[in-house]
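hi!! sorry for the late reply, been swamped w classes. u asked for the two structures so here they r. pasted raw, havent cleaned anything up. first the sequence of the first protein and right below it the tokens
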Amino acid sequence: MAKPEQEARERIDALLSDAGWCVQDAAKVNLAAGRGVAVREFPLVRGHGFADYLLYVDGKAAGVIEAKKEGETLTGVELQATKYSEGVPATVPAHFRPLPFLYQSTGIETRFTNEFDPDPRSRRVFSFHKPETHAAWLAMAAADAPATDLAAEAGTARKPPTLRTRLQRLPPLITTGLWPAQIRAVNNLERSLADDRPRAVIQMATGSGKTFTAISSIYRLIKFADARRVLFLVDRGNLGRQALREFQSYTTPDDGRKFTELYNVQLLTSNKLDPVARVVITTIQRLYSMLQGKDLDPELEEASQFDQGAGLIHEPAPVGYNPAIPVESFDFVFTDECHRSIYNLWRQVLEYFDAYLIGMTATPSKQTLGFFNQNLVMEYTHEQAVADGVNVGFDVYRIRTQITEQGSTVEAGLFVDKRDRESRRVRWEKLDEDLQYDADALDRRVVSIDQIRTVIRTFKAKLLTEIFPGRTEVPKTLIYAKDDSHADDIVQIVREEFGKGNEFAQKITYKTGTARIVTKKVGPDGREVEEVTYKSSGVKPEDLLQSFRNSYNPRIVVTVDMIATGTDIRPLEAVMFMRAVRSRNFFEQMKGRGVRVINPTDLIAVTPDAQAKTGFMIVDCVGVCEQELTDSRPLERNPTVPLEKLLQAVAFGSTDADILSSLAGRLARLDLRLGPPERKALAEAAGGLTLKDLTGRLVQAIDPDQQIEAARAALTREGEASAEPTTEQVTHAAEQLMREAVVPIATNPALRQRLIALKQQFDQTIDALSKDTVIEAAFSAAAKEKAKGLVESFEQFIREHKDEITALQVLYSQPYAKRLRFADIKALAEVIQAPPRQWTSERLWKAYETLDRTKVRGSGGQLLSDIVSLVRFALHHDSALVPYADQVEERFESWLAQQETHGRRFTDEQRQWLELIRDHMAGSLRIEMDDFDFTPFAQRGGAGKAVRVFGAELRALLDELNEALAA
């Protein structure tokens, strides 16, 4: 048996060869054999011994390798490599002395130090750098270094500028176009890089411009640090395409040109890197496949594999060195939504490259922070983003029903519908015994039609009265369903309950095959019109969402998780949960779809009665805002883990015993439910293997006794039948057994799809008999507490500033010493909207309404003048909170009645002018003669016409109206 030291040398030889080095013995050296030659056991000057490997680049010595056996720590032998680098004989040509490139390796672990760096520090690398990379570094050093070598002027020689040197010399950031939070994020990241911290994570709230921040940083790293290539990783295809569009639209702050006019940006759609690309965008799934040397089905890029099951994998197929994609391919790796990408399968991809790792997420978990060495360079929460006006806040409206929380019972002897989950074919069946089901069985084993209907009916009843009072249009609403079948049921019931057609409510999931695409164009008459086209092939998620974002319909979209993360839907005002979520990260991402800001013009274009998006509403129908959430998504060794996710995990290379055990149990249960025709069809798809065969292979592979026997058999084949296998040998045999056991499933996509189809074809019971009842439909306790805090802060602000702000001085005094002017309330609005308060009339109105609807009338906060109503109500001058325009309307009607009582009559034309004056005062508080020069009076003849209509009494009439109608 080979000694550990020899085994290490063999592994190192293989790694060097893979990286393009010619490995030779000192006695048989041939420096012309290749650009890079690694010479074993090279003799050094007296006192320096033999270098385990001396690295030649273009015929001159450039570096050394200190080899150690597996298991030895490497930081303790760095001085040995330094000793080698200083002991190269003077007769040996060298690029620089001491040699600059130092490695320590066991063949399992490798560390590298670049002595050209300003403060040389060893770092772990996946494998050795290619000779061409060393040559490039040497050429750069030679072009900049003094004519003499490093040894000639020890302690005084200036080191050539490496990447790490350049990171310490970045110029000040040009802040044009950046939010304050983005400025902090870029500056903090650059400080971290200048300190040579290999990993960093940026936490920025959803919608606060993480991608723009990343591009701003990447631009500077390429231009000023001369980064050769940057990798931008995403975990689903639509996020990659979205990132490409942002690179294309990014205007550089100093040059003024677009990013893509200066640097090539490649969005990977095949397995070939563009050699001239400075930025490469790809899904982490594709890059993993490329490193494995395999092609990737493009469909697998459209779903986040974390959500689809890769998060279950504990021991995936390892990534090996791929000469086509060397470890030095990228200097920086930016990974979007890194809370998903770091886990299990994907962390191998991140750690493959000799690059700085920068993670970006709105929801870092403990695992995320741990992976990035607790180096949180930026923390910008949703609450901070709301305070800065970058996000909007939210409230929670809770809908609770009896069946949602407790399930129901259908008595034996009654007929129920049985629906095939795959074909959705329905048949009648008489119950032989009572059907009892709990909340967990809802919409999976049993579908309660009235439970869905009760929730949707309650939502409709409260939508325009309590949730969005005063509105007439259904706000853009996103409903999260449990699965595709559940989404179908919800869409049908939403259409029925709202009395609307197909365009009003639509399902958008990964099974949606056709996209309705609405494009706005200018018609022949100059007006904007919508042009509708349909796309049925190559449909991407962004195609399906295009209408939801940009046109009036659909008003309500139902999804499962396709719109859960990284998807920009700015007009969204309501997020409704009809499914539970156990992961805190996933819930925050789903909730985050509603936080994005939108300018009023764009919002009104799709929701005509919405004046502005000042917040969004979470409609919680399952208690998701109240339950305990977890930071991670561990595999549960029980039937709650979907078969589809277990199969996906195996397809991605998992040989974890938990997964194989769960999969074996699932297949065994499935086999019990199959009839002869299904078993026959499945065997054909599996190449003759039955489900029992597949299950047996999995069970044997995870059996400890079988694993020990396999290790013994391996020793026997090697001629060591009498030896007892070591723990390492048993582990190796176990891995081999498990890898062989999953081959029939992992390499057969058609079989996996067939297994999923068989699992889904079994029936759901449709409970159309149980009657659901509403337990509660109201704002949540947390929402009321938040509203209470806002109201108390507002009323305290009024008390503290009543002597400083003109509008408050006027409203505080009774009777009023003087009348309010529009400029006064505008100044007050600007003060309360400024940081740190960030209050708007609409937010304050909603807070009072949340606390006590009985004291709030109508939908206010949309006109600037409504701040008058808010202050008067806060001061208890008014017993009810009423929109200012409604108060003006009431006073106007009262004034008219008084005039008629006193015999004063107005002509129809005068009435029309009086109503215009009333409407003007509802928004501007007062009416003056100068106001007749503006809309809407100017269109009717202006001040001259007003004088002709009312004659000499016009000025007195205006004073009278200002007295009667104004606050």
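now the second protein. again sequence first, tokens right under
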Amino acid sequence: MARVSSPSVRATKWWFSFELACLALAAATAVLGVSAAPPSAADLVRCPKSCGGVNISYPYGIGPRCFRPGFEVTCNRSTRPPKLFLGSNDTTTEIIQQYPSGFVEASIVFNIAIRSDAAPGTTYNISWEAPGRSLYIEEESNMVIVGCGIEVYMFDATDPGNMLGFCASTCDDMAAMEKGAEGRDCSGMGCCSIWLETSVRAFRLSIIQKEEALPTAVANATVKAFLNTEDSYVFSMADLLSDKVNESTIGASTTYLRPVITDQPNCRKAKKDKQYACAASSCWDDDDGSGYICFCTSQHDDGNPYIVGPGGCSQGYEPSHDKLNCSRTCGNTSIPFPFGLEPECSATAKFQLNCTSNQLLTQRSSVQYQVVNISVEEGLLSVNRTYDNSDLMEDTDFSELYGIWKWAISNTTCDLAKNQNHTSYACISANSECTNVTHGHVNIGYRCKCSQGYEGNPYIRNGCNDINECLMIPYLCTETCYNREGSYNCTSCPQGTSFDPVERQCISSKHLSLVFVVAIGLGCGFGVVALTLSTTILFQQWRRRYIQKIIRMTYFKRNKGILLEQLIRAQRTKIFTLQELERATNSFDSTRIVGHGGHGTVYKGILSDQRVVAIKKSKIVDQSEIDQFINEVAILSKIVHRNVVNLFGCCLETEVPLLVYEFISNGTLYELLHGDLSTRCLLTWDDRMRIALEAATALAYLHSAASIPIFHRDVKSANILLNESFTAKVSDFGASRSISIDETHVITIVQGTFGYLDPEYYHTGQLNEKSDVYSFGVILVELLTRRKAILLDCFGEKQNLSHCFLQRLQDKTTAEILDPQIIEDANQREIDEMASLAEICLKLQGEERPTMREVELRLQLLRGKVTKKNRGDLHMNNETEPLLLSKSNSNSRTQYIELRAISTSITHEATRCYTMEKELVSWSDIPR
């Protein structure tokens, strides 16, 4: 639903959207008033099937008992043809097409009347939210705004502090616009656009009138705003001058809405709910963590995953895929049918496995598992998780418990499987039977097993064979055993004989007594000798372990282990034993060393749960520095962020404490930028922008969003790690300091790395958030120039890169030190914006620098422009200084603030060839 508020001057009540969301959810629940369990096609036979030319299928519907909560639609029959809209009273979101998977193609448009007599700065607010909180606008959609003399800000209505984008539109005289803008993509003249990089459930547009003289013809023009999936809108003067959206041009633009079932947060919890929506299909956790999505497992299945029976997902099981030439082993692991390594050798796609380096692997979402054993008899899969980056779902037909998965053929019961489709029924062997598979109280499907007295594979013809119970251990009979088909008989021995369980036959009673006496004597003798030896060995082992335990406990107490346990008790961090880490690193073998951090040596290790980790062995042995180690563990245990290295735990049972981090595979940003020229990889402009933005996001989080503000104090390219997807992660918190929220700075012993060290901090000893900003500015210069923070000048003396860069800016000779790859990839405007951001970060006075939050938003807007240029080859002819959003501590209103003006002046002491000694002298002018 959408609403346009009355004009106000740069002030917005953000809680208004939240209030509408609550009302919409309550209304949807009240209207339905029935169970939301998956219906059958017969249950929906009375429900309308279409509106105009648009088909309607569950979970969407019109009228009671025809839709799932949050998916009500309305058919407006007053138009010709009738039109289908989301919700019960929303006329903004028209449904153009609905797909069987639940995705919707919709038209979302707004017409905003602008008052020509309104004062400059007047703000018009528009809010939109999906009815029932169950639909998301897909990422890579484009918000297009047609109008004159306006600035447009787009916010995530569920997170008022999250600005999705900004654009501005101006209008020249009519002749110039017809010549320069007519028939072209939006470039800021007559229209502008905002590219959405993430999915959105609700948004708010703030349209601000600028103080601008407009041509008479467009002075009272209505502002039009609409969403489209492809960046394909071509500007038209007719659209600008019209009173509302022109359906022949703008009205043809549509976007896609993704359905999400929000009554449970994920598939695991939803399966335990009676209203579980995917009872006849597979389940997928939504990427945003707000719910789950149903889908049919088969790639070519166009059934409806939200209903059961006819019209729903087909089972797609192929019992004929058991070919003779299929490979049935991988390493030491057997692969029985219905599993296989190729599509023609497995019953369905979900049973297809992968054999890599003699390891049997299966993929569930983006999580990969190693299959250790497949049990057809018990319907179990033994797995080890080899890689995991989040809490992801399992397939509906697999139920995980402590590395053991129950698996089923399909999401149906035995009765339905036998009666619905005989050709896809899996239990094809003679002497086999069907059994239902459950997880708790939830049925997840059916599987097959051989009947009692038989064993083998029930999924292949004649796969179940008779068990010879007479050869089993332990022996089943106390008498003579006779096997028969599917069973066995026990027969007593003749008189005067006794049954020998070793020989498994009847023998003379006297012979049996002599054998028993000899066996008992030998057994007692060997038992005494074995008991004596084992007692001696066990005592020596106990004594050695006891001494080692005393040593480890001594180190544990000396390293303040009890204090650390209290600090991280409520966190997810673990205190490892020394034995665990020695196994992980092969007793800290030198071949496992992968690097040397600012505060220790780093080893690569593999834990018992197959997680690959980095283990940092601290260089410190001085008892006075133990507090710094405790500081690093306490800080990292509180941090949960995708761009901050994840701490798994620590070990305190050694003289030198150990830290256990996640292993980051692609090294550091320093190595990527300054590595060997012969192996140096290309680093595109977009990659540099993304890495800078991710690092800035992490530092902004540490400064303002973490539970306790944290100043890193050693920000440098060597402390920015890159994982396998080249995502940046900030690391090495050995020098970090946390402060209380009401403090602005702390007095510390100066620590850091020359070339990155804040000059104000160096002279005053006062550490604040602007100290990290200066260091980050040096990293921006490294990204621009691909030069080291300390380099050699023309005289062979050490020179500070930041001073050299600032001097080049002043002399307007920056291009001489830029990386040629940047000059090739980026345009001059983008380079100038990045350079100006680096310049303001490198101000000598901390109060003149921006905060990391401001730096993050500036980079976010700049990268948005670059991404939009790459996607649509748009040419922005008019550039407007962006506004950044900040939160007020005194009330819940949002307000706009402008970045400080970037000064272009450089101190007179800066020279192109600056030695380290001269640099320290130049810093002496800063007041302490």
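hope this helps!! also noticed smth abt the second:
Residues 708 and 738 are 6 Å apart (CA to CA).
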